[in-house]
Design goal:
Oligomer: homodimer
Number of domains of chain A: 1
Bound molecules: manganese (II) ion, zinc ion
Strand content of chain A: 15-25%
CATH topology of chain A: Arc Repressor Mutant, subunit A
Order of helices and strands of chain A: HHEHHEEEEHEH
Number of helices of chain A: 6
Largest interface: A-B, 37 and 37 residues
CATH class of chain A: Mainly Alpha
Structural class of chain A: alpha+beta
Largest sheet of chain A: 3 strands, antiparallel
CATH architecture of chain A: Orthogonal Bundle
Strand order of the largest sheet of chain A: 1-3-2
Chain lengths: 146, 146
DNA sequence: TTTAGTATTGCAACTTTATTGCATTTCTTT
DNA sequence: AAAGAAATGCAATAAAGTTGCAATACTAAA
């Protein structure tokens, strides 16, 4: 649950009309403690409101294009969406559990990475870095030991 | 082109029967300068030999399970396969071009990361870290400037 | 307020990538 | 040579996301 983000203002700042769907989706993503799949977002939204899954995909694409949210890869074939790094959400690596599929946000300091030298030497343009740690999460480890 | 790997020996060491398909696929992956998609591997193989694409997927799964190759995520929905880190192939980050979809291997030293402290403090098991840098590659940049 | 234009959404069909079940073939070992 | 195990092929299926187009909702001018 993020106390600091004014989601309506974020949409406005990106020159996007403020629609209920956009705001809801952004809130769902921003208030969740780990990145969500399109299906998870759709299911959450569907509990209260009738919405088409294509609309969800389209809004997600739009928010990604505007740099408001990030599209992250899991170890599976589904994308997950989380807030793009901003004042309230520092960039951070993620952990993907191969066993249960859960994705968790790691501490921003967990794996500090020095980008500056690469940014200077790389002959193209670097826009984003994604760090994903794979393995077995605490919960699955506990279960497997019982 | 990797001069150092004895692919037959790698398969043998993993207790896998040496089949033509396994060896060919491992050679294709090991000798390529960047990770390949299942389709690219299948197409390469198909040029010389009649093979079913399901067989390709199954061999890729097997080699991943044995830790011989790695399954990498691109910025798209396709997995790519490259040699797992070993004596001849140090772990390294990859660059994904959002424009042309190309994936290139970055220098192992390009983004050195300190894993030890996370490995010690993380309550689960860490098996693998994937670092993907996204942006626009040199070629696409050049084209867009013309 | 009407109306025209634009933006958003819904729906059905489609695409891509990968997986599954089961039959067939090939290999290994005795 | 025969039996059993391993590998492969083929057709069907699944999952996730995309596309085209029609319908609805919103916005702003007349
Ligand atoms: Mn996160
Ligand atoms: Mn590589
Ligand atoms: Zn888990
Ligand atoms: Zn490119």
């Amino acid at each position: 649950m993020c106390q600091h983000c004014d989601y309506a203002q974020i949409l406005e700042a990106a020159n996007l009309n403020l629609t209920t769907n956009r705001l809801k989706i952004l809130e769902i993503i921003g208030n969740n403690r780990s990145p969500l799949s399109a299906k998870e977002i759709y299911d959450t939204l569907s509990r209260n409101k009738d919405i088409n899954r294509v609309t969800v995909y389209r809004i997600l694409d739009l928010l990604v294009k505007k740099g408001i949210i990030n599209r992250l890869t899991s170890g599976e074939r589904t994308f997950h969406y989380g807030m793009a790094p901003n004042k309230n959400h520092p960039a951070h690596p993620h952990f993907y559990c191969k066993h249960c599929g859960a994705i968790e946000c790691l501490n921003p300091e967990a794996l500090h990475i020095e980008m500056e030298s690469l940014k200077k030497t790389y002959p193209g343009v670097i826009e984003n870095v994604e760090i994903r740690v794979d393995g077995i999460c605490k919960n699955c480890l506990k279960k497997s030991r019982q």
